What we know:
Elements: H1 5-29, H2 34-60, H3 67-81, H4 85-98, H5 115-119, H6 123-132, H7 135-149, H8 160-184, H9 186-210, H10 227-234, E1 237-239, H11 242-247, H12 254-259, H13 268-274, H14 276-279, E2 283-285, E3 297-299, E4 304-306, H15 309-323
Helix pairs in contact: 1-2, 2-3, 2-4, 2-9, 3-8, 7-9, 8-9
Amino acid sequence: MRPDVKRSVWQVINTIVPFFLLWYLAYLSLSVSYWLTLVPVCLAAGLLVRIFIIFHDCCHGSFFPNRKANEVLGTLTGILTCCPFHQWRHSHSVHHATSGNLDRHGTGDIWTLTVEEYLALPRLKRMAYRMYRNPLVMFGLGPTYLFLIEYRFNRKGARRKERMNTYITNLGIAAVAGLLCWSIGWKEFLLIQGPIFLISGLAGVWLFYVQHQFEGTYFEKDEKWDYVEAALRGSSFYKLPKILHWFTGNIGFHHIHHLSPRVPNYYLHHVHKKNTMFQSVNSITLLSSLKSLNFRIWDENRKKLMGFGYIKRFLKAEENRTTG
Length: 324
């Protein structure tokens, strides 16, 4: 749980410096072929995911031992990732404190209803929930709305320091985008930053989704909810190829992160290897994680995530039970 300043600084160097170099290389390649441009763009998108993990660790106060250093780097990386540091830190802290709790969900997490909650909704809200859970919306429109629109506004009840940080982040984003548009042209800027934003946004939302929406996950009512159970059973161990673990800052070891969020990302793999209890948790792979695309709703009776098709079977079973 104690960050190593040298390792943290090295991670900043080996992540942010290559990101800027790849961005510049993508600009130079525009004069050759846009297909060629997509190569550094895709690599830069992967590095932007890694930058987000650095931002994420700063929000937990786990990247540097100094609180101010975490706040400064978190704000700067927040400009690169379009996330205001204080606002995101608040919602993410709530997520960690309530993940898997059916009575306290709704802040900083994926909107997940139980079958009973869904059936109790009016028709329009049911339609809204179905749209929200549609993969095209969640992984297509979702990242764009979240990072470009929702994070530009302060949450209700935000204090002055949080509000000011959001304004500083917005100003920083506008300044960087404006400077690049002025220096290289707005079309060139969009041709490079556009796909970087879309690819990294899709990857980020997918990682956040699959870390809690997987076969065998954990959800309980408040009276039965347990923090350790929610961490070890409700947060996935996403077994990725080593190169993807590097690009994603080891966030695949999410069960360890939720159990102890003060562990820096570069120690998560070490903690996993050192403790056999972490190796015995359910794991998912790239292939098996695709099943998560079918999950829409939580059935409290089966303790499982189900698709929307299950609702008809549920209603029919309830009708038979009532009339029988």
